[in-house]
């Protein structure tokens, strides 16, 4: 429920006391009302109008110290009525202009950088979606010890070796629980042919179409080096043999082929990742389904009640030679 004048505590007792000539409670009332106005999370028209009427009337009557305190408290308040600002200006006091509201990206970064705040599920989903494209935010989230490794799978490409290993183990623990459809039969052969011909665009298009990846799937990699890590996961999900994957590493890109260490690291990643684990990592990294286009045929049990039963095939019997009728 938005804060309004109806939610303000009853100050009629203070108002009555303020009429006592021996007591001057106007500074107290003004400071209390200012605190409540500034602290209100939402201010409706009634609340703004009530504060304007009270503060604009009291500011000319209070002492300099109280007026200065009120001006400081109202600095940056976005809903400050113009009449209140003018009353303070008449006393030689300027109020700081409203502070611009932080955009969602800055608010997310402040949330991620605050180790004392637990990140809720919805907020974490929003942060991970932004961190896929924001390397700095990804590093902040990967450094938080309170986020489980499995939840950090979307940031696998941004992670260092140790974090990748922890994320991979967490993903592998559940990857086999979900069926992994078979890749198209001719996909591996087509990829090897494209790599042998050094047809990089054709290779990427064939791989993306075969696994049902988004058209811009390579843009998920934060840098050129991590693109091959992403491609290695895709090759594993495409069910290539290790020899076929090594052939791709040695022929598709000369810069990769000339680095023994790089080829060895890619082969190690290929060996240590199961096909289902590679599929699940791709799903997390891309935020999109993988292998959904392959195997779209609905499975229908042969003995299901709705399944049309095939007719029993007629027994095959050798054709007997026809007898010739004897004629005399």
From TrEMBL:
<feature type="region of interest" description="Disordered">
    <location>
        <begin position="296"/>
        <end position="328"/>
    </location>
</feature>
<feature type="compositionally biased region" description="Low complexity">
    <location>
        <begin position="310"/>
        <end position="322"/>
    </location>
</feature>
<feature type="compositionally biased region" description="Basic and acidic residues">
    <location>
        <begin position="296"/>
        <end position="309"/>
    </location>
</feature>
<protein>
    <recommendedName>
        <fullName>DUF2336 domain-containing protein</fullName>
    </recommendedName>
</protein>
């Amino acid at each position: 429920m938005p804060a309004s004048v109806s939610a303000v505590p009853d100050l009629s007792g203070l108002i009555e006391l303020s009429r006592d000539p021996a007591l001057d409670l106007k500074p107290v009332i003004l400071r209390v009302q200012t605190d409540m106005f500034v602290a209100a999370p939402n201010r409706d028209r009634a609340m703004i109008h009530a504060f304007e009427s009270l503060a604009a009337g009291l500011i000319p009557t209070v002492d300099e110290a109280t007026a200065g305190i009120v001006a400081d408290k109202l600095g940056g308040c976005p809903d400050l009525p113009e009449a209140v600002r003018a009353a303070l200006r008449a006393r030689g006091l300027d109020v700081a202009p409203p502070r611009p509201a932080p955009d969602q990206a800055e608010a997310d970064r402040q949330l991620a950088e605050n180790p004392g705040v637990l990140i809720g599920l919805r907020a974490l989903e929003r942060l991970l979606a932004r961190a896929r494209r924001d390397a700095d935010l990804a590093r902040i989230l990967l450094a938080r010890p309170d986020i489980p490794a499995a939840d950090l799978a979307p940031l696998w490409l941004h992670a260092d070796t140790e974090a990748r290993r922890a994320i991979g183990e967490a993903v592998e623990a559940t990857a086999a629980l979900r069926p992994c459809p078979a890749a198209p039969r001719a996909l591996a052969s087509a990829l090897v042919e494209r790599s042998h011909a050094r047809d990089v665009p054709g290779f990427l298009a064939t791989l993306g179409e075969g696994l049902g990846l988004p058209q811009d799937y390579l843009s998920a990699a934060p840098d050129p080096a991590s693109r091959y890590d992403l491609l290695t996961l895709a090759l594993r999900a495409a069910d290539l043999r290790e020899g076929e994957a090594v052939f791709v590493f040695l022929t598709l890109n000369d810069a990769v082929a000339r680095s023994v260490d790089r080829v060895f690291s890619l082969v190690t990643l290929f060996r240590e990742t199961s096909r289902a684990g590679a599929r699940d990592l791709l799903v997390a990294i891309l935020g999109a389904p993988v292998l959904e286009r392959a195997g779209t045929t609905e499975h229908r049990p042969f003995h299901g009640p709705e399944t049309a039963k095939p007719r029993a095939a007629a027994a095959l019997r050798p054709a007997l030679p026809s007898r010739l009728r004897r004629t005399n």
